[in-house]
Design brief:
Blueprint: H1 5-9, E1 10-16, H2 22-32, H3 68-71, E2 75-79, E3 91-98, H4 101-114, H5 124-144, E4 148-154, H6 155-160, H7 162-172, H8 179-184
Length: 196
């Protein structure tokens, strides 16, 4: 298959709330054939045994944008708040992960417990409200951007029907990914905070 010049210039981004399945999607896209821009500074642990797939310079996007040149033709992960700092002048395709809010909160709480950090900060009900408002705002912002296209993918739906979600993502990203390789890295054993 000949190289896709559009894909070679596109910065693919996996985004979403923390603990929404972004690391799993990074693994899927890498397996599918998109090189991942990562630095392995944050090592795998019990919360993400397959790795976090992070690139530290992403966090300095407001002041350091030079790395975006290296991100062309690759996939990089960033939390949803950082999307607002993406400069124009690049073509972005965002795979935005969604997950049941109660599972996100449960996963975050479990992570704090494992790290011996306090869990009595902002009540979960308030955090759910804040996250909900943020998602509404960021999705409205995404819809207004001309240099950015997005697809919304449910972590829960991947686990329920991975083939259909892989088909959607592959189609969104040009249809050149190895769907079977993407399916092979979906790990149901990591779905530890389940809510019906």
């Amino acid at each position: 298959m000949s190289p896709d010049p559009i894909a070679a210039e596109t910065v693919t981004i996996v985004s979403g709330l923390p603990r929404s399945g972004t690391s799993m999607m990074m693994r899927m896209l890498e397996a599918g054939g998109i090189p991942a821009l990562i630095d392995n500074v944050r090592e795998a642990d019990e919360d993400n045994p397959r790795g976090y797939y992070e690139f530290e310079r992403v966090k300095q996007l407001k002041t350091d944008r030079a790395w975006l040149e290296d991100a062309k033709g690759k996939v990089v992960k960033m939390v949803s708040t950082l999307l607002l700092d993406l400069p124009a002048g690049y073509a972005y395709k965002v795979v935005f992960m969604r997950r049941k809010m109660e599972e996100i909160l449960a996963s975050q709480r479990q992570m704090l417990i494992r790290k011996d950090k306090p869990t009595d900060g902002v009540p979960e009900e308030k955090m759910a409200e804040l996250y909900g408002k943020h998602l509404t705002q960021i999705e409205a912002w995404i819809a207004r951007q001309r240099h950015l296209a997005a697809i919304y993918v449910s972590y829960n739906e991947i686990l329920a029907n991975a083939r259909e979600q892989v088909r959607r993502v592959n189609e969104f990203l040009g249809g050149r990914l190895d769907a079977d390789a993407m399916l092979a890295v979906v790990d149901h054993a990591l779905h530890r905070q389940r809510k019906s």
